[in-house]
Amino acid sequence: STVAFFLFPPPPPPPPFFFFFFFYPFTKRTKMSHRKFEAPRSGSLGFLPKKRTKRHAGRIRSFPKDDGKAEPHLTAFRGYKAGMTHVVRGVDRAGALMHKREVVDAVSVVETPPMVVVGVVGYVETPNGLRTLTTVFAEHLSEEFKRRCYKNWYKAKKKAYTKYAAKYKDGAKDIEHELERIAKFSSVVRVIAHTQVKKLNLRIKKAHIMEIQVNGGADAKAKVDFAKSLFEKEIHIDSVFAKDEQIDVIGVTKGKGYEGVTTRWGVTRLPRKTHRGLRKVACIGSWHPARVSTTVARAGQNGYFHRTEMNKKIYRIGKAGDKASCQTKADLTEKGITPMGGFVRYGEVNEDWVMLKGAIVGVKKRPVVLRKSLMKHTARRHLEDIDLKFIDTSSKQGHGRFQTAEEKAKFLGPLASKQNQ
Questions:
Q1: Confidence band (pLDDT; 50, 70, 90) for 27?
Q2: Contact of 385 with 244, CB cutoff 8 Å
Q3: 369 forms bridges with which residues in the sheet?
Q4: Which of 235, 257, 325, 326 is most buried per CB count within 10 Å?
Q5: To 5 degrees, how large is the angle CA 172–CA 178–CA 184?
């Protein structure tokens, strides 16, 4: 009635967005944003060709950018993968979910015996890249370095560098002249260093040789003087890297041989009832062009690829002969890094070693290159100080129960097999 209309007026009309919210058809978008988001390809094409590498010991393709304000220093090192274990550490990263709590991390152990510097190389910049100016070697070279110069050391005359060593007689004028040329003309200076494989139980006698760039120093002369001061001397891992530093690992991955498309590229398996196999690519291309595109996943070699892994944090650096290298404030047990029974397929670690977060490329005993990071780190997780609470040294050949041999003997008590000894 008219009275009711005035007493109870109708509500005001809803705003426009009301109809939009309740009556907009929320259906799936028919237009793709982009095919790479809606139907992405399987596997990256950035690593083609997927073939076995020719650089079996790892090769540094880029060194860190030079900083003239810093002191002259080396930028890389070489080690040998020993194995993996796990650690317990406290997280000190404000704002993180695990802040002030403990986490378990998998770590890799790389044995790094001291390297020996045996030479220096100078490079000049050209429009086509770097060109070698000259190379200067030390007077005394070890046998393991010379072995690398021969295919068959047993049948060789072993005369390598004997005439070169004669240049050091009569004041070494030729050597000093070449060093002055490097200091005067070169823009990049690198030292030639080799590993001491005789200190490892790897059954190899040929040293692995590599060039390590010298960064820092006001000019090339400072770099050359620094390199010359290292001739015939050992350089240790702790003189190149430090704890909590982010580094890059360069090496060769574990070889897998010839494998199919599902494992090699990660393509989706076909339905169960598919004729003639289901771990395949259903269509490898159109009729024309009448050839298979290079972007189509195909079976072939998998693994044994040259790879560079970036940002591996150093958790700890151990010294040779330190029987308490794995001791922490929370775990006062005196123990070394070698687990009970040794690292599987490697053995004992008796030289210097470095502990890296996570896994690294390659199988046990494989040489890997450790390089200073190419970038300047600002992320909080990269700058975090690592506080290790516990380092596991139990047996890696099964479900290890004991951290040390003393702990095992104390738990088992007198053994019958030891009574008659």
A1: low
A2: yes
A3: 78, 250
A4: 326
A5: 135
Which stretches within 198-350 are classed as H helix? 220-229, 261-265
- The neighbour count for residue 229, using CB atoms within 10 Å, is 10
- Tell me how long the chain is: 421
Q: Write the pLDDT tens digit of every residue in 283-339.
A: 999 999 999 999 999 999 999 999 999 999 999 999 999 999 999 999 999 999 999
End-to-end Cα separation, the chain, in angstroms = 115
Q: Provide the greatest CA pair distance for the chain.
A: 126
Q: pLDDT per residue over 75-111, tens digit each?
A: 999 999 999 999 999 999 999 999 999 999 999 999 9
Q: Which residue has the tokens 């000093």?
A: 176
What is the spatial distance between Cα 52 and Cα 68, in angstroms, rounded to a whole number? Answer: 38
Name the least confident of 11-15, 63-67, 169-173, 218-222. Answer: 11-15
SS3 of 318, please? strand
Q: Which of 125, 230, 120, 217 is nearest to 178 (CA)?
A: 120
Helix (H, G, I), strand (E, B) or coil at 304: coil
Residue 178 tokens, joined? 């070449």
Tokens representing residue 367 in the block: 């040489």
